[in-house]
Amino acid sequence: xxxxxxxxxxxxxxxxxxxxxxxxxxxxxxxxxxxxxxxxxxxxxxxxxxxxxxxxxxxxxxxxxxxxxxxxxxxxxxxxxxxxxxxxxxxxxxxxxxxxxxxxxxxxxxxxxx
Length: 114
Hints:
Order of helices and strands: EEEHHHEH
Strand order of the largest sheet: 1-4-2-3
Radius of gyration: 13 Å
Helix content: 25-40%
Distance between the termini: 13 Å
């Protein structure tokens, strides 16, 4: 199972394997405070794509397509996490304020279809 959770939410045993999927360290979060098993920068959106979304140069639909195109170049790393998710819960941790339209949700959907 793959699920998404904001880094600012309390860790839970139900989270299973916790993977930080932000390219930058989350604002206001001390490194000693965040409980995670892995920081997977390889599967995060490129800096250019992230900046385009946050500056509203592109909309979320355009971002999602471009991000999936980037993810297509990371099939091996994606399969690694997808295989882990078949054995245990994998929680993708993200810092975005929007809990519905964010890169972690796009990544989770992509991983589920590998």
